[in-house]
C-alpha cells in the first residue's frame, strides 16, 4: 500500500486542530482532531511511501507508535486516500497506459470524489472503457455529446443519423467546417476517433477478433429536430423500453434546451408517461402534436450555439454519471432552460399508471438526488 491524499480536494486548516479537505459542500470533508505532528504527517502521504516508511516518518515527527496506521485507516475510511497500487487488475491495466491516464487525469480526479475507495478512480475509468453508447442524432448537440463521451474515456461511442453535414451543424468541439458535405455518421466517426484518448478496445470479453460487440449501456437521443426531444413519440422508443435499454433525451427546440428524462425502462417515467401526462393537463395536446409531427407548420431551426453547447455538456455529464453507476437528476425528470434568461429548472416527469412501461408499479417513477453539507469525521 502506497497511500496518497487525493489531490482533487484542496486542503485548509479550519482551526488549530481541524483540517477541511475540499471547498464545495458536495464533497468536502472535515477531519480532526490533529496536532502539528499529525498535520505534518499528511505531507508524507504523497504516494511514494509504503506503510513501513510512513511509520518511520511518523516516529521522526514525534507521533506515538501505531499512530501512522490509525491515521491512514481514518483517512481511508473518510474517502480521502488513494493508493498508487490499489484497484486490482483493471486498474493495473490502466496504469500500463500512462499516455491515456495522463490525458484523463482531470477525469480521474473527478472520479476519485465519487469512487471513494483507494484505486476506485482507475477502476471506474476501466469500466468506462468497457461500455458501449449510441448517440442518435448528429447535429450541433448530438455530435458534441459523442465527442465528449469519447474524450472522457467511454470505449465505444457510435453515432447514428442520416444525410450529410450541413453548414449549420458545424460547432466548436463538434463537427468541424471541413466535414460539410460528408455523411453525418462518417463525420462523427472521425470526430469520435480524434477525441478519444485511445483506440476503442477490441470486442468480446477476451478482446478476441470477431467477438460480438457488447450490448448498449445507454442511448442518447439527440435528434436535430428538437420536437422529437420536447415531445418524443412513444412509438419511436418502444423498442428500447421493451428491451430494457436506458435512454436519455437531449436537444433544443425554439431556443429552449432540454436534457432528460433519463429513462430506465420499468423504473422511471418514459416518453409514453410524458405524453399521457401532457394529455391529462392539456386536452388539445394530441391535436397539436399530431400536426407538429406531420411537419405542418414546423418552425425552422433555432438552436443557438451557446444553448446547444450547454445542452450537450449537461447531457454528456448526466450520461457519464449514469455510466459510472450513479443516478443523475435527469432520472424521472427533465431540465429546461430557454433564451434569454437561461434559468435551468427541473420538471419532474411522473410515471403514469396507465403506461405499459410499468414504471408506476415499480414505485420509482421519479428519482431525486440531494446535496449535502461537508462530511464531519471529527473523533468524539
Describe the overall structure.
By secondary structure, this protein is of the alpha/beta class. It folds into two domains: 3-126, no CATH class; 131-362, Rossmann fold (3-Layer(aba) Sandwich). Helices cover 38% and strands 16% of the residues. The protein contains 15 helices and 13 strands. It has helices at residues 36-42, 51-60, 67-77, 88-95, 98-103, 105-114, 120-130, 140-151, 184-195, 227-230, 234-243, 271-281, 285-294, 305-323, 359-362, and strands at 3-5, 11-15, 18-21, 29-31, 81-83, 132-136, 156-160, 218-221, 247-253, 256-263, 333-338, 345-348, 375-376. It has a seven-stranded mixed sheet with strand order 7-6-8-9-10-11-12. Strand 2 (11-15) and strand 3 form a beta hairpin. Residues 205-209 and 364-373 have low confidence and may be disordered.
